[in-house]
C-alpha cells in the first residue's frame, strides 16, 4: 500500500509557486484547511487564482491571503463576510468571478471525475452565461460550463489514514469531498491521522486514490463565522 503521509504543511506544499490555481475546501469557516492557508501566507506566493465557495473573513481563512495581496483572482459563490475582499473588488485590485453555488460544486466534481464540461440551467439569461455555449433540451435552455483546472486542491478532514482515505465530520463535509482529486495534486490535512487500514471502509467518504499527500494538522481555531445564541431566560 502506498503511504502518502508527509510530516507537516511545509512538506505537503512543496511545488507551489506564483500564478498557480488553488482549490480550497470549506463552507464559511467550517472545514477550511487552516494549516495549508497559513503555510501559503508564510511562503508568500502571489498572483494566485483561488477557487473557494467564499473568501473567509478579514483576518481568518482566505482573508489572510487577501490581506497580503497574494490573490489575483477569486472564483466563489458567496463573498459577503469579508470587508477587505469587497474593498479590493470595488477598487479593481481583485478579479472576481461569481458562480452559482451548485455550478461551482459541479465544476469541481466534474474535474474530479475527468468530465471536461457539462450543461446546467443555472445562470441562463444572466451575466453568468455571457460568452458561453447554450443549448436547448426538452424545451429548456442550458449553459455549457467547463470543469475547473487547478494545480493544487487543499482539503481538510476529521480523520484520515496513511493511504489518504478521508472521513469528514458534520458540516465540514461540504466542498471538501468534491475538491479532493479535482486538481493535479490534492493535499489533505486531518485532525487525526491513523495507520493505513485503521478506518472502517464503510465509513470512508473519500478514498485515498484521490489524495496525493496527507498530514496531521495542528492548532485548529475552528472559528464560528456568525455566532448566534439564545438569550438566557
From TrEMBL:
Pfam families: CoA_trans (PF01144). Signal peptide: none annotated. Keywords: Transferase. It comes from the Bacteria. InterPro entries: 3-oxoacid_CoA-transf_A (IPR012792), CoA_trans_fam_I (IPR004165), NagB/RpiA_transferase-like (IPR037171). One of its GO terms (molecular function) is CoA-transferase activity. This is 3-oxoacid CoA-transferase subunit A. It comes from Robiginitalea myxolifaciens.
Amino acid at each position: 500500500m502506498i503511504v502518502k503521509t508527509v510530516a507537516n504543511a511545509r512538506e505537503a506544499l512543496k511545488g507551489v509557486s506564483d500564478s498557480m490555481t488553488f482549490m480550497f475546501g470549506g463552507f464559511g469557516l467550517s472545514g477550511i484547511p487552516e494549516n495549508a492557508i497559513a503555510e501559503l501566507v508564510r511562503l508568500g506566493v502571489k498572483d494566485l487564482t483561488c477557487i473557494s465557495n467564499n473568501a473567509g473573513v478579514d483576518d481568518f481563512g482566505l482573508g489572510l491571503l487577501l490581506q497580503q495581496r497574494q490573490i489575483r483572482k477569486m472564483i466563489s459563490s458567496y463573498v459577503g463576510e469579508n470587508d477587505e475582499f469587497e474593498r479590493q473588488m470595488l477598487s479593481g485590485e481583485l478579479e472576481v468571478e461569481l458562480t452559482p453555488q451548485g455550478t461551482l460544486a459541479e465544476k469541481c466534481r466534474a474535474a474530479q471525475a475527468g468530465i471536461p464540461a457539462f450543461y446546467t440551467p443555472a445562470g441562463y439569461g444572466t451575466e453568468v452565461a455571457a460568452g458561453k455555449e447554450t443549448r436547448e433540451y426538452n424545451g429548456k435552455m442550458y449553459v455549457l460550463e467547463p470543469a475547473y483546472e487547478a494545480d493544487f486542491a487543499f482539503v481538510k478532514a476529521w480523520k484520515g489514514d496513511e493511504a489518504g482515505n478521508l472521513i469528514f465530520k458534520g458540516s465540514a463535509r461540504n466542498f471538501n469531498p468534491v475538491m479532493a482529486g479535482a486538481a493535479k495534486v490534492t493535499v489533505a490535512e486531518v485532525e487525526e491521522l491513523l495507520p493505513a487500514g485503521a478506518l472502517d471502509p464503510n465509513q470512508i467518504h473519500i478514498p485515498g486514490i484521490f489524495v496525493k499527500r496527507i498530514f496531521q494538522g495542528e492548532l485548529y481555531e475552528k472559528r464560528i463565522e456568525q455566532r448566534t445564541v439564545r438569550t438566557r431566560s
